[in-house]
Amino acid sequence: MSHAIEVRELHYRAGKTFEIRDFALSVPTGSLYGFLGPNGSGKTTTIRLLLGLLRPLGGRIAVLGGEVPRDIPRILARTGYVPEQPHLYPTVTVAEAMRFHAAFYTTWDWPWADDLTRQFQLDRDSRLGQLSKGEMGKLEMLLALAQRPELLVLDEPTDGLDPVVRRDVLAALLDYVSQQNATVFISSHLVHELERICDWVGVMDRGRLVAELPMQSFKNGIKRLRVANPPALPGDTPFVLLARETANGALETWTVRGWQAPMGQYFEGVGASLREVIDLDLEEGFVELLRTFREPRS
Amino acid sequence: MFRMILFTQWKWSRLVIALSAVAAFALPVLSVERFGRADVSRWEVQEMLTSIQAWGVLYPVLAAALALLVAALAWSPDHRSRHVYALSLPVPRWHYVLLRLGAGAILLAGPVLALWAGALVATTAATIPPGLHAYPTTLALRFALAVLVAYGVIFAVSSGTARTAGYVLGALGALIAFEVLAAAAEVNVHILGPVLLRLFVWPGPLEVFTGRWMLIDV
Amino acid sequence: MSEHALGLLLAGIVAGTMPARAQDPVELRARVTRLERELREAEAAVARRDSLTGRSRLTGADTVTVGALRVVVPAGLPPSSRDIVARVWTMVDATFGSAAAVLADHPFTLVVDDPRSETRRRVGITNPVLTARAPEEVELRLIWAVSTALNEQADAALSAWLQGTLVPTPDPSRERQSVYVNLVTAPSPAARSCFVGELAGCRAVLGLAEAPDVFEQWYDPPRRRRIVQQMENLEEVRGLPRTFSGCVADHADADCLAVLRAVPPDLVPPPLPPGARISLARTALALGGRGSYARLIGTRGRPVNVRLAAASGVETDSLVAAWRNAILGARPQPVAVEPRGAWVALAWGIVFGLVALRSSRWR
Questions:
Q1: Contacts of B156 (CB under 8 A, 6+ apart)
Q2: What's the order of all strands across the beta sheet hosting A240-248?
Q3: Structure ipTM
Q4: Within an 8 Å CB–CB cutoff, is residue B167 touching chain A?
Q5: CB B27 within 8 A of CB B118
Q6: Could B77 and A87 be called an inter-chain contact, meaning their C-beta atoms sit closer than 8 Å?
Q7: Model pTM?
Q8: Smaller CB count within 10 Å for chain B: N or C?
Q9: Distances B138 to A36, B119, B142, B218 between C-alpha atoms, Å
Q10: How many CB atoms lie under 10 A from the CB of residue C30?
Q11: What angle do CA B175, B179, B185 make, to 5 degrees?
């Protein structure tokens, strides 16, 4: 499997409190990669490192086959970027912003840009400083898409947008991906949003990558089990035991990762019985994952 | 690409450019305005030169102010967005800086040409006594060089990080503070003077600002 | 006169220069001239008296003689003093020629102007030349002292015309440059006409005109009125209240001319400063050769233009034309951006541009 983004042993420090260390990430080419993490976990910093906006202390970053920062102009020419905060010049109009952006990208698609302008109902003569947050979000997405990139890096692209705008933006994104087979790296703390569109997920917390796996595995792999007569020491389990809570008396609730149905035999082997397997949605799984990462089982 | 960079820079600094162009045109015209009037004796050449010399102080001031504003405005929108957009564009950093540098330099040509035109108009309209000569082109050339140097200095500082600007300002502040403290302690050590001397005396970078800026002289 | 008396005199001079009634340049100029004359007389009196009483002689001094110039050099002055005296003599000889022979009777004594030194006291020293130790200072002071002594040979009429001291200079072009600027900027129709080539104008501004009233040639009526206004506090003017008022209040030019005629001629500022006449004299001496200064001072009693013609050996108009050509030829460097300065500015612009290009993408 080829990777649009590959990061190895990344090291970066910002101030005295925040550090990214031994960070590794692999985004398969053509995937829609959801980059999850709570606020302040380091998602935006990681994205800036990927695009050469920040200088890492160590490690290796490869994007679209090029090395960062050595090949950054070539990489950026094939990458559409929507940053977390609006970054365009507020004194220019929508049309001028499009002309300015187009001047830097040989792949710029004017007909499609015009289509998107109509689709997003953007007024070409409005100054960017006068646009609403939703309009600005749509313009940023328009600029990123109309350059027809091979990789889209979207940093909380729908954060703060109303549901209608969010739907428009995501629809345009999915439309583009379906046409171009582009890779999308999208960060968000809105788990449900990614659950619907992403096929890979990476979870980041406190500067570390907690998990990285296909969305399906993530969603199916984390379960809550009701276990009767649980063993005092679980011993060698075929799944990853994330948490263990006493429910009432001899009944316990286990949160596990990597669960598959045949693993029920384990409980018979240790004299316990599995009463119930409860599916967790992505958000519950995400919360459980973070909780166990922050408070490791002793 | 350069056209769009030039366009944005024009948008940001057009007010400054326009006002400077007006000022640059008006300065030479105003400096000789009263010498065409009937109530001024045509023998008062010394007064004429003194007045032109007094007006001449404004040329380097205008050059410095213009360069400062155009260089600062070339970068201020990027500074405000913390350079995220500029750095996410697919050009090497030096290329982007060169585009901005060139765009600013082209915009500065406007006020320089305005000064040249104003100086030509002023010297054509004024009655220049025998023995005196008009130097409109020399004045405009000198103005252009002063603008260029000042623009280069301020552009270089603005293109750096906030830390770089901090170092430059900090060094200046430290020099002044040292001078003040030394004077207060009655210690006969001077650093600021020699530093300024290096800057303003040939071949210092700011030498072009010094001396008399005469539109009309012997 | 004792030192104490000299001190009192100097105190009086200082008090006399204090602002009293007016600060106008004409009156101040008159006062300065009078005080300078008094100071010279006082110093000469001190020197005469002290030489008679035989007080104070320099110890360890050396006498250097070059040509007719004899200089007593005290110990402690630079060893190059002999070279300095030689240079001074060369310049003096070139300017004053045979007239400089009188210096043989006037030895000069260099006196170091050092507060810690006893020799600072000039008592009993003939022709003292107060100087610092720096060789260029010694040379400058000596040449001034020698020139002043030689200028004193001139009669009052010549001195009054010259308005200054004729001092040899190795580089007369600076003086001519200054005269050029004065000629161009003088608020005078005569100066302007001289500049454009009318020799009558040149003669007028140089004080050589034979016309009875040069003030009409020198200035236009508004300028004459302004000059009269500045003479308000002169004694001669205070005696003409009606004429003064007619000039200043009623703008009657005839009254202005009457006031100007009434005051001593040396109190009316000429259009050009003394440097112009000195440069003319220098031109005459250069044209006339070694005996020219002797002829200039030897023709006393005759008009200055005739004396200058005698000194130079050419007609007055030829002399004035030669002077004008020399002045016009000394036009100062026109206002220009020197190529060297332009290239340096351009280079600095490029250097700062290159510094900017090295701006890091890391924020």
A1: C352, C353, C355, C356, C359
A2: A240-248, A251-257, A223-228, A273-279
A3: 0.86
A4: no
A5: yes
A6: no
A7: 0.78
A8: N
A9: 65, 10, 6, 14
A10: 17
A11: 140
